[in-house]
């Protein structure tokens, strides 16, 4: 039994090491959220058996939990570099034909050849329609549309786009060479009842699950969504000192369980030799 107990400890320590190592490896990944491995003890006994005479049977992994705490905000010189000061997520849509929606905290956006604003893996950033005052007029899945930069003023074909600004509430305003301006919409933001239940798919992107609940859409500045900071990127929420301490602790746990396994092997071998 001690072999199984020690083996479960080795596996747990290995999982802890892998989780901490992944956090450290992504310390420079924009919008990355760290994870923590949680464990629980294993115990079993018969209903009529006294638990005072039964030892535990080891440890098991109860879950690797993502921690969506705020990362530090670093200033850049690009308008399309966006960060969220709050709990919201940017909504992006994958390429046709699947057009799968996902959610990200990595606001390092750029413009492709079709003048569509896309994220670091080519997904199109989604927007919501706004009125003349910059307030969202629709916040459902059907209301969302792709963030596309206009080339000319829709009311004057000779006026070209000269500048865009993005406010704290995510409202995008385009200014043209003739001095006119128009609101293109608001960056679509999503929140979830249980963000820890989101399914990570890599590159600081997540998908909704039955555990996380469906996305609640709105513009920044509403509820827990927080505000949008243009010219800023969110760093990974990693404290390297804390992670290195956790790495040392996981290593010690692995070594201790390996020693317990070796001790159990020595005891078993001694018993076998006595019987011979």
Descriptive overview:
With 276 residues, the protein is of the alpha+beta class. It has two domains: 2-69 and 238-275, no CATH class; 73-234, no CATH class. Helices cover 22% and strands 33% of the residues. It has two helices and 21 strands. The protein has helices spanning 2-25, 240-275; strands spanning 35-41, 59-66, 73-75, 81-85, 89-93, 101-104, 107-108, 110-111, 117-118, 124-128, 145-146, 152-153, 156-166, 171-176, 181-187, 189-191, 199-202, 205-207, 216-218, 227-230, 232-234. Strands 5, 6, 10, 11, 12, 13, 14, 15, 16, 17, 18 and 19 form a twelve-stranded antiparallel β-sheet that branches. Strands 7-4-20 form a three-stranded antiparallel β-sheet, with no helix packed on it. A two-stranded antiparallel sheet has the order 1-2. Helix 1 (2-25) runs antiparallel to helix 2 (240-275). The two termini are 22 Å apart. The mean pLDDT is 91. Keywords: Bacterial flagellum, Cell projection, Cilium, Flagellum. Residues 5-33 form the Flagellar basal body rod protein N-terminal domain. It holds the Pfam family Flg_bbr_C. This is Flagellar hook protein FlgE. It comes from Blastomonas natatoria.
Uncertain stretches of 5 or more adjacent residues: none
Number of strands: 21
Shape: elongated
Distance, first to last CA: 22 Å
In oligomeric terms, what are we looking at? single chain
Count every helix, treating DSSP H or I runs of 4 or more residues as helices: 2
Radius of gyration: 26 Å
Tell me the number of structural domains. 2
**Structural class based on helices, strands and sheet pairing:** alpha+beta
SSE string: HEEEEEEEEEEEEEEEEEEEEEH
If you average the pLDDT, what whole number results?
Answer: 91
Q: In percent, how much strand structure appears in the residues? A: 25-35%
Major sheet summary line: 12 strands, antiparallel
Please give the share of residues in helix: 10-25%
């Amino acid at each position: 039994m001690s072999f199984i107990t020690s083996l479960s400890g080795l596996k747990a320590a290995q999982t802890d090491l892998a989780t901490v190592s992944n956090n450290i490896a992504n310390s420079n990944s924009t919008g990355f959220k760290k994870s923590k491995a949680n464990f629980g003890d294993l115990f079993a006994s018969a209903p009529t058996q006294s638990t005072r005479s039964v030892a535990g049977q080891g440890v098991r992994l109860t879950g690797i939990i993502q921690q969506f705490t705020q990362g530090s905000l670093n200033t850049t010189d690009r308008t399309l570099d966006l960060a969220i000061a709050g709990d919201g997520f940017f909504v992006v849509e994958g390429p046709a034909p699947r057009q799968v929606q996902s959610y990200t905290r990595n606001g390092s956006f750029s413009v492709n050849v079709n003048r569509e604003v896309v994220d670091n893996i080519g997904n199109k950033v989604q927007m919501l329609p706004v009125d003349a005052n910059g307030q969202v007029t629709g916040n459902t899945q059907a209301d969302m549309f792709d963030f596309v930069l206009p080339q000319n003023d829709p009311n004057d074909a000779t006026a070209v786009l000269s500048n865009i600004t993005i406010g704290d509430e995510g409202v995008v305003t385009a200014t043209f060479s003739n001095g006119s301006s128009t609101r293109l919409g608001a960056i679509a933001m999503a929140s979830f009842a249980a963000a820890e239940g989101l399914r990570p798919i890599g590159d600081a992107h997540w998908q909704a699950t039955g555990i996380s609940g469906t996305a609640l859409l709105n513009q920044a500045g509403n509820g827990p969504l927080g505000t949008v900071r243009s010219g800023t990127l969110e760093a990974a929420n990693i404290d390297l000192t804390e992670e290195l301490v956790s790495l040392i602790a996981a290593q010690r746990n692995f070594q201790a369980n390996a020693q317990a396994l070796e001790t159990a092997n020595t005891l078993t071998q001694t018993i076998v030799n006595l019987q011979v």
